[in-house]
Amino acid sequence: MYDKTVDKPLLLNNEKKKTFKLGHDFRTQFELGIMLWPSILHIFIFVIIPLFGYIIAFKDYDPVSGVAGIFSSAWNGWNNFMIMFNSYDFIPMLRNTIGMNLLASFVSIPVTLFFALFLNEITSSKFKSFVQTATYLPHFISWVIYGGLFVTLLRSDGAVNYILKQLHLVNKPIPFLSDPSFFWGIATVTSLLKDLGWGAILYLAAIAGVDMALYESATIDGAGRFKKMFYITIPCIKPTLMIMIIFAVSGILNNNFTQIYVFQNSLNLPTSQVIDTYVYQFGLQQLQFNVATAIQLMKSVFALILLWGANSLSKKMTQSGLF
Amino acid sequence: MVQNGVRSSRTFQIVNISIMVILVFLAVYPFFFSIINSLNDGTDLRRGPVLLWPRVFRFDSWEKVLSDSSIIKAGMITLSRTIIVTVIQIFNTALFTYAFSRPYLKYKKFYVAVGFASMYFPGALIPTFLLYNWLGIYDTYWVYITPILVGSFFNVIIFNANYKAIPESLFESAKMDGANEFRIFFSIVLPLSKSVIAAISVFVAVWIWNDYGTTLFFTQNTDLQTIQYYILKLIMSNAGADQVSSAASQNADITKLINQTGIGRTTAETIQLAAMVIASIPMIIMYPFTQKFFIKGVMLGSVKG
């Protein structure tokens, strides 16, 4: 091993640079391996091995049979998927999942973008950073606490109904949490409020990267504040915007379980049951392991297709994508 | 013409500042609301919530929460888990990314493939549940630690972008001088990546502190509750009063805590609000301090990654 350090200058002097490449010796590779392999092994155990568990979606699996049962249980083809499709819960669940995600994306992407654009127009940098710091706050609070806060505020004897009553706007308290017609709205507004400040960071970073000369020449040409926003800033940050849209499209089947579970109760279930909560309820609480896995397998496959599709469409249209 | 422009610009600034003030209010007021209500007398609160300042100031709910043994235990579990996992995971990610970022690493494609696979193949609930059972970590403290000792590959990408800012000549000269890979990592790379380490540590710590899914999915023992799960049960048992109660609300120590506090200076509601405020204090204290670090981290990740 010691020889290597002696060899190096010799090799370099003999103009044999190409035969010796720095770091290609066994010892270096071995050390790098020590750094890499614990993580690789961990990924194999906790990410790759569970992928094999997806096969119980095609099996007649009995939870009692344990891990061995995954392989020994009988195949039953597409049966679990048929049970899922024929379930009365399936269509409402799919509608809630996609509907809530579409609503959230349609609201949060433009609102966050405009928040960033308007925040960028604030001239006082102290006030700007104060606004940023204050609006990050909810992002660091757990959904249990943030959602719980809104549960408290929206209860029939909560602050919102109290204020509405004091203002004589309502006679009876509005059942925000038990009436299914409010659920999508509550989910959208709370997730918007929670991540508005945080989501704006990405846009602000992109806006900061726009060439100042463009604004200067636009000002000389007589463009106003809004013209500059629409014809310079937005086109310049299109790659960032596209990435956000790709994420939104590929995550359309992926609800925020941590959020929805906090607001969910048996009365608002018709509009609050989504794939993720259904998998938990059906799988872990009712022990229908194979059907729950079938739902999740279908969801994962569609999510991968959507991610790939959104990415290639974005590449074609704007020459920018995620990968 | 010019004056008109100035006037419209001033109007815009006023409107804009007003919008920002409203947004700040919307972000901050819910917390202020929970603080003042948790500090109000419980019986008095039944008359209606306080909106600006406690009507009858009482510290009793806070005292009760801070002296409740099951809340303290849940807090300790959450705190210990957060510290252990953050330290190991960040160290591990930094080390992994160092090796991963070396231009002379062989079979790099393999590591890239494994990393991306871990990012894009989502873990399914049931197979994960079966795996944890098989490994024997289901319903033990280890379920809070073991599965997340290795972080997301996203963090590797962010670390990688930051390592690229270190001049390659530094590594080359260290290597020429005979320093081994660990030496280079500890004495060159780690000291130069303090800001990304701080940034990602905050992300990871916040995520773990706020996590309740692990408790919900993979534990049953009430001795293993995390603080977030405990508060979730408090919320559900309070909400359950006028709704059909959920499984999580039926829990012995929650019932004990609420029954004990049903009358007098504290109520189930003030206890819940006090617990919520106390559980968010660590995150609220932490985030403004590290703000400049994590903005740097996010920006590097988004621009270069």
From TrEMBL, chain B:
Keyword Transmembrane: yes
Cellular localization per UniProt: Cell membrane
A single GO cellular-component term on record: plasma membrane
Biological process terms in GO annotation: transmembrane transport
Keywords, alphabetical: Cell membrane, Membrane, Transmembrane, Transmembrane helix, Transport
PANTHER family from the UniProt entry: ABC TRANSPORTER PERMEASE PROTEIN MG189-RELATED-RELATED, POLYGALACTURONAN_RHAMNOGALACTURONAN TRANSPORT SYSTEM PERMEASE PROTEIN YTCP
Record family assignment: Belongs to the binding-protein-dependent transport system permease family.
Protein name: Putative aldouronate transport system permease protein
Organism, as annotated: Paenibacillus prosopidis
